[in-house]
Design goal:
Keywords: Transferase. This is Glycosyltransferase family 8 protein. InterPro entries: GNT1/Glycosyltrans_8, Nucleotide-diphossugar_trans. GO terms for molecular function: transferase activity. It comes from Thermothelomyces thermophilus (strain ATCC 42464 / BCRC 31852 / DSM 1799). 37% of the residues lie in helices and 12% in strands. It is of the alpha/beta class. The chain folds into 2 domains: 31 residues; 301 residues, Alpha-Beta Complex (Spore Coat Polysaccharide Biosynthesis Protein SpsA, Chain A), CATH 3.90.550.10. The strands form 2 sheets. It has a 7-stranded mixed β-sheet. A 3-stranded mixed β-sheet has the order 5-10-9. The chain is globular. It starts with a helix and ends in a 9-residue tail after the last helix.
Length: 355
């Protein structure tokens, strides 16, 4: 009897200790999240952004190969550079976290050591067999909807490059999904075009993680065999909150065209100014087909063919608010900045063949 009583007391104490520990960790996380919000917005507590006790925010990147892993860490470093306050979460294939000597496993081990503030989340890769193999694993980004320990996350493709602090995005009104429109697919000249017919972009998403939403996405992806953009539009075309594409969905290809009606559709009277648009943008997405993505080899001929035009006309003349041939200057700078960051960030991690 005495022994049984002692065992009961020990078990009770053990359970109590576990409860206290869990409560302490939860309080520590909530307090840390609250402190980061206070630091980001000068004491403002954005309670309207969540129905939970305290908001927890994160920037999310996903990677399914060594190049996208490099890009993701480059973007986290740029977020550090711009003084953002919230968590960084990296979604990656589960087998990268296992012991091994693959490039990805070695790089992830180094990331864990050199960037301990980056939260690593191993997942099962989601893929489709349809269409271009380049995008087969793009569905993996939807694992961000399963990050239910956060109240809101900003997830963007890692073939984008961060241009500024985006902490303010987390202050947006409650919405399960907020995305820009794929403005480059919209026919601005068509009088019959309707807003409800415009396609949503999926390369940047402000979302409220939710397990049921995640399961709906999985079911749609498996039944349709579609890519991420098609899945997003099938489920959220009528309900998504719209982010302004002019700030969050800038494409590098925009600097290679002279027709900016689609991009400037929010303000038809605006004049295109490459320098001003870059200074206002928060993200730029590398999209210059047939020029390869910036981490892939390219020939001098491909580069020369892709360079934005630079002529002697008024539109390319130097002005007080922009240099001569501003489109070419800004576009080239994106690639130069990318190459520099790749050497400085990914080289020491063994992801580029340089160290």
């Amino acid at each position: 009897m005495l022994l049984s009583a002692k065992r009961a007391i020990i078990a009770t104490c053990g359970i109590a200790a576990c409860v206290i520990l869990v409560s302490f960790n939860r309080l520590r996380l909530v307090t840390a999240a609250s402190q980061r919000s206070t630091e980001a917005w000068g004491g403002l507590q954005p309670h309207w952004t969540t129905e939970q006790e305290e908001p927890r925010f994160a920037y999310v990147q996903y990677a399914t190969d060594i190049n996208y892993l490099c890009n993701a860490i480059m973007n986290f470093v740029r977020l550090d550079r711009y003084g953002t306050h919230f968590d960084r979460v990296l979604i990656h294939p589960r087998d990268w976290a296992e012991p091994g000597d693959s490039r990805e496993q070695i790089a992830l081990s180094r990331i864990r050591s050199q960037y301990p503030h980056v939260q690593l989340r191993p997942v099962e890769v989601l893929s489709t067999s349809a269409g271009d193999p380049t995008w087969h694993k793009s569905l993996t980004k939807f694992h961000a909807f399963a990050l239910t320990d956060y109240t809101r996350v900003l997830v963007f493709d890692s073939d984008s490059m961060v241009l500024n602090n985006m902490d303010h995005c987390f202050l947006a009104p409650l919405a399960p999904v907020a995305v820009p429109r794929a403005y480059w697919l919209h026919d601005a000249s068509s009088s019959s075009s309707s807003i409800k017919d415009q396609i949503l972009a999926s390369h940047v998403m402000l979302i409220e993680p939710n397990q049921r939403t995640f399961e709906r996405i999985l079911a749609e992806a498996r039944s349709s065999g579609a890519f991420d953009m098609e899945v997003l539009n099938a489920l959220f075309a009528d309900s998504a909150m719209i982010l302004p594409h002019r700030r969050y969905a800038l494409l590098t290809g925009e600097f290679r065209t002279k027709d900016h009606r689609h991009y400037l559709s929010e303000d038809p009277d605006a004049e295109w100014n490459a320098t001003a648009e870059v200074s206002r943008a928060y993200l730029v997405h590398f999209s210059d087909w047939p020029l390869p993505k910036p981490w892939l080899p390219r020939s001098p001929e491909q580069w020369a063919a892709a360079l934005p035009a630079c002529g002697d006309g008024e539109e390319d003349a130097e002005r007080p608010d922009r240099p001569r041939c501003a489109d070419r200057v800004m576009w080239t700078r994106f690639y130069e900045d990318y190459d520099r960051d790749r050497r400085e960030v990914c080289g020491p991690l063994g992801m580029t063949g340089e160290s």
